[in-house]
Amino acid sequence: MRAVFLAALLTIVVATAPGVYGQSPAAPEAAPLKVDDILDRMNRSESAVFVRMRMYHPLIEVYIQNLTLDEQLGWAPTEDKYFLGQFQLADAPRLLQLGQGRKSRGFGSRLTGTGTAIQFLPDGFAAMAAPDWHLLERSRYDFRFVRREFLGEARCFVFDVQPRREGKDGFSGRIWVEDRDFNIVRFNGINRGTDQTLSSFFRRTLSFHVDGWRVNVLPGVWLPSYVYSEETDLATARSSGRQARFKSQTRIWGYEAQGTESTQQLTTIRVDEPTIDDRTDSQRQLSPVLSQRRWEEEAELNVIERLEKVGLLAPVGEVDRVLEVVLNNLIVSNDLTIERTPRCRILLTSPLESFTVGHTIVLSRGLIDVLPGEAGLAMMLAHELSHLVLGHPLIDTKFAFADRLMVNDAELLQTLQFRRTPREEVTADEKVIELLKKSPYKDKLADAGLFLRAIAQRAKQLPMLIQPHIGDHIADAGQILRLAELMDQAPALAPESLDQVSALSLGARLVVNPWNGRLLLDRTPAVPLASIREKVPLAVTPLMPYIKYAAPQS
Ligand SMILES: [Zn+2]
Predict the structure, then answer these.
(1) CA 358–ligand 1 middle distance (angstroms)
(2) What element of type H or E holds 79?
(3) How far is the CA of 425 from the centre of ligand 1 (A)?
(4) Radius of gyration of the chain (CA)
(5) Distance (Å, rounded) from C-alpha 242 to C-alpha 182?
(6) Which helix (H) or strand (E) holds 298?
(7) Which residue would you say has higher pLDDT here, 327 or 91?
(8) For residue 422, how far is its CA from the centre of ligand 1 (angstroms)?
(9) Among the listed ranges 61-70, 129-138, 176-185, 309-318, which one has the minimum average pLDDT value?
């Protein structure tokens, strides 16, 4: 094995073609770069990444699906796991779970799998954000130059990497290093150290193949954003005679939200701040009714601000506008008069959920990702709109007191629970049918019903995906079928048909900017499916971002 790596190419000619670098003038001649220099610069950039990972505490979400082989449909998900937390790097990377308060520490964060008895540890997934947390030093690794390759806009050197000593730890695989700042953009392979930790913890041999991506968020700043992991030959599954595999998506975002507190404490305040919101709408004291409204509005603002601060809510953006257009279609076609126009916002997590905070309707990113069409989106928005129209309580006014939200981030999700009574849900669902029948979506309700069928069918296998953090259940684990009337109108699910799309894969629509949580709609047209293997509703797929260089801040 070593002989191959010793034959590594020692210099690489970097031809700086005109125009490649955009703003920098193109060098006319090719400048030879030593491989050792490239690798040393790569390690310096990698150290800088680790410094930032220590400084920021971004959110990290891990979603895992276990799959078993179905003779007709190929690999189908049979169970799932979910972790949401803050990434922390001290001695080793850790995932501090949100919504668990103080109870998740060490062994507390160990989850016991059922069925295939595969167990996963959240810290192990946090460790997958880098190929080696002790850097890929030339003294410890052999490198072999493979080729030049573009990843999106980034021109990369591709190297194969192996630990020098045949041992139990270190990264084996391939790295892509871009040629402007020499950052690792992508790494793909296996880290024996992580496997070792996880395997000894679980007393079984596990191997986690990872495909990790960094995104250029600011000029010169690349940060871990996506990791896809997949294992296809699980030793335990083989011995039990049952074919099993798992796939997982790890997303990291919210660096800016978590970094601001420690890095840029506000120390001066301008007295004549020009952006200050002048809300004095009358010279007189507010009437009791108006005071109550204002009170509820304040509670709403407090909750929204707190969710933004922890990085769970995307900043106001273009996707909100898209939802508001659909919402407005419902309002106008039903001739509704609402005292304050409702707004739409997006929760950045994967589990499918929706809820209303005052006059703000919130849908999760995962829900928007998997909804196949506008009619389905209209159905989800109509449900929340119904709570509003029916005069259901929209906000717990306890949040109008500032101290209520002064909890730490880990406890926030326990504080914010907007679940409703079964009675409210039933009446809202009745209203949904009424609103949709008068809306421009009335002829497409079969699509919406089909989506509900797909969710109801998977609710037992994928309880973590179909379980809300904060808001309403989309489906109640197959027990009570919500919106049965819509489902009855829908055709039967046809898993073997390529034309029927009941629900999309995760990550199908929205692209999250890992720095500030801004969302973009992926406008790439849908690719026709080539086989039913590709049609797995609500599936975890590899994540391959389009790599672009960040524009300088103006
Ligand atoms: Zn509801």
Answers:
(1) 13
(2) strand 74-89
(3) 5
(4) 25
(5) 44
(6) helix 288-309
(7) 327
(8) 9
(9) 61-70
Residue 117 Cα to ligand 1 midpoint, Å, equals 35
In what helix (H) or strand (E) does residue 55 lie, and over which residues does it extend? helix 35-55
Distances (CA, A) of 108 to 100, 105, 112, 278, 442: 10, 5, 10, 49, 49
Structure tokens at 195: 């496997």
289, exposed or middle or buried, with CB in 10 Å at 0-12, 13-18, 19+? Answer: exposed
CB 219 within 8 A of CB 552: yes
Report how far ligand 1's centroid is from the alpha carbon of 252 (Å): 29
**Burial class for 444, CB neighbours closer than 10 Å (0-12, 13-18, 19+):** middle
- Return all residues near 221 (Cβ < 8 A) that are at least 6 apart: 52, 550
Distance CA 244, CA 70 (A): 10
User: What is the 219 CA–ligand 1 centroid distance (Å)?
Assistant: 43
- In this prediction, residue 4 has a pLDDT band, given cuts at 50, 70 and 90, of very low
- Residue 420 C-alpha to ligand 1 middle, in angstroms? 6
Q: Judge contact between 97 and 109, C-beta under 8 A.
A: yes
Q: Provide the 8-state DSSP code for 538.
A: T
Distance (angstroms) between ligand 1 centre and the Cα of 403 equals: 27
SS3 of residue 253 by DSSP: strand
Tokens at 297, concatenated: 């509005």
b/e sequence 126-141, b meaning 16+ C-beta within 10 Å:
bbbbbbbbebbeeebb
